[in-house]
From TrEMBL:
Keywords: 4Fe-4S, Iron, Iron-sulfur, Lyase, Metal-binding. It comes from the Bacteria. The lineage of its organism: Bacteria, Pseudomonadati, Pseudomonadota, Alphaproteobacteria, Hyphomicrobiales. Pfam families: Fumerase (PF05681). This is Fumarate hydratase. It comes from Methylobacterium brachythecii. Coiled coil: none annotated. Its EC number is 4.2.1.32. Belongs to the class-I fumarase family. One of its GO terms (molecular function) is L(+)-tartrate dehydratase activity.
Length: 319
């Protein structure tokens, strides 16, 4: 039995880590951008960002004044047994969000869409969002928090099979150019692309690809992996760098996730994570042990399974 007190305490720690400590995979990608960026203003901004991250970690302060809209991704091992069940876990995550908003502090960004009611704690109707996934043969629970900017950096288009790869490339470039020219994203950033699924699933896939995949990871389908590399290069060829200044470092990396879709359509979504890439993960084991990391490991062979049944791979015998 996993105690609720452990879940709530771990969740509060994750909120602090996400707000303050930039994941090393993203930092590495940003440093590579700094090494290759030729635009003067863009180079200056990237260096300032790197210095800001170090200051935030040293002072234990959120690295950006706008701490976005905190959300949760929960992956249950099939044999996990949290105290009070899933309802208890949800309650713990909502309490942790409210407590962390005051203690870190985070900017209380959540308001009612019509009445603008603000509880000053980032908790309200359907807030924070909590998404779920599952994993076989495990007794742990993975908690991941993501603090993503809540206003811009997302777009969707219903493409059709006849649009082909050229249509996919065109929408990708159209979206990034629009983001850059209109100030709709904070770059350099991790770009996520969702291909396929239903309309709503397509948006979810793209956001998860941007927020829950690490820099340098690649889709296990080699053709999709090639497309990820191509899109990263394309995104950095449009003449935009850090925060919209002229340059060549709009995209730290590009991640693509797919889902089977209606035979007559080809939905596509494009999302840009914040330049802060605020995420943090912890695994709470069945015995109460907690392990922290920055790779959510959200996409697995199990989550990407394409068959009706899932068969746990049999380990190869040692030769």
């Amino acid at each position: 039995m996993i105690p609720l007190a452990t879940i709530e305490k771990t969740a509060e720690t994750l909120m602090e880590k996400a707000a303050i400590e930039i994941p090393e995979d993203y930092l590495g990608g940003l440093r590579r951008c700094a090494d290759t960026e030729k635009g003067d203003l863009s180079s200056f901004v990237i260096q300032a960002m790197l210095e800001n991250y170090e200051a935030a970690k040293e002072d234990r302060r959120a690295m950006c004044g706008d701490t976005g809209v905190p959300r949760w991704y929960v992956k249950y091992g099939n044999d996990a047994r949290p105290e009070s069940g899933p309802i208890g876990v949800e309650s713990a995550l909502r309490r942790a969000t409210a407590n962390a908003t005051q203690s870190i502090p985070l900017r209380p960004n959540r308001v009612h869409p019509l009445w603008r009611t603000d509880h000053d704690n980032n908790v309200g109707i359907n807030a924070p969002e909590i998404e779920y996934a599952f994993h076989p043969d495990a007794d742990w629970i993975d908690l991941t928090t993501v603090h993503k900017g809540g206003l811009f950096g997302s777009d969707y288009r219903m493409l059709f099979p006849g649009d082909g790869m050229q249509g996919i490339r065109r929408f990708f470039l159209d979206t990034l150019v629009a983001f850059g020219k209109r100030g709709l994203a904070c770059q350099p950033a991790i770009v996520g692309v969702g291909l396929g699924g239903s309309k709503d699933a397509c948006m979810v896939l793209g956001k998860q690809a941007s927020c829950l995949r690490t820099v340098g990871s690649r889709n296990p389908d080699p053709k999709i992996a090639e497309l990820e590399d191509e899109f990263k290069e394309l995104g950095n060829s449009i003449g935009m760098g850090a925060m919209g200044f002229m340059g060549s470092s709009m995209v730290v990396d590009c991640n693509i996730e797919v889902g089977y879709c209606h035979t007559g359509g080809m939905p596509m979504s494009v999302h840009m994570f914040c330049l802060s890439s605020r995420r943090a993960t912890a695994r709470i084991h069945g015995d109460g042990r907690v392990e922290y990391r920055t790779d959510p490991d959200w996409f697995t062979d199990y989550s990407r399974r394409a068959t009706v049944e899932w068969h746990t791979p049999v380990p190869m015998a040692a030769e």
